[in-house]
Amino acid sequence: AIMLTDCRNSLFERLLRRYHDNGDVVAMLDHQGRMHPAIAEFPNIAFYHGRLKAVPLAHQEATLPEHGNSGDLLTDMLLTRRVAFIDAAKPATTTSDKVNIIEAEIIAGLVRRIYDIEKATFDADETVGVIVPYRNQTATVRKLIDRYGIDILHNITIDTVERFQGSQRKYIIYGFTVQEYYQLNFLTSNVYEEPDGTVIDRKLNVAMTRAEEHLVMVGHAPLLEKNPTFRRLIGFVKEREGSIKMEG
Fold first, then answer.
1. pLDDT (tens digit, 9 = 90+) per residue, 76-92?
2. Start-to-end Cα distance in the chain
3. Which of 24, 71, 162, 195 lies 20 to 30 Å from 201, alpha-carbon distance?
4. Radius of gyration over alpha carbons of the chain, in Å?
5. Which of 86, 84, 83 is nearest to 103 (CA)?
6. Residues in a beta bridge with 31
7. Is the peptide bond before 56 cis (omega within 30 degrees of 0)?
8. Could you tell me the pTM of the whole model?
9. 24 near 39, Cβ under 8 Å?
């Protein structure tokens, strides 16, 4: 009677399902002041029916140069792309499926590059945040960042997507971490299907929408592409020339 068929469904989801077509009860907040439109584009298409609009604020209207001249591939990517996907090789060996050392090395290197770019105004609570799905990977990334010996970097937030909900950073790095097919179920188990059939991947949506000016995703594309939403996302980034393949 109260439309509770799955204990994962929140009260608000059940209310939305019940009153979806009642304009006196349901309305959508369609203006956002966090993400640059280039970052909002995929979530807008995939999850918000194209109805999401920028306020806009100053950072939402800022432009980036078309080309970088740093001499470093990843630095130039950070300087010229709002959204990027780094296709990381799968580790040949691992101590745990919840630790991906190749991705952790890439993420640590990205954090160091972001620090170099933003050194004059770097703020551990505002400049960069790292999202990974497992505590083991959190610890691994933290250890690799600490080896650079830059004290302020130890204080950046590296945590799961659930702990990032409600917050934002100028740069968000999202490391998928997963190495085996069965792990895709963990990443994609928290979905909501709207009455019109639209499937919303809550974790992916929250992770992507934490970024204000830059979003960098790191993962093993051949595995992630076995999921339809991830396949669509990776294709979306490739079409915009934001994909880089990193060999092991």
1. 999 999 999 999 999 99
2. 54
3. 24
4. 19
5. 86
6. 53
7. yes
8. 0.93
9. no
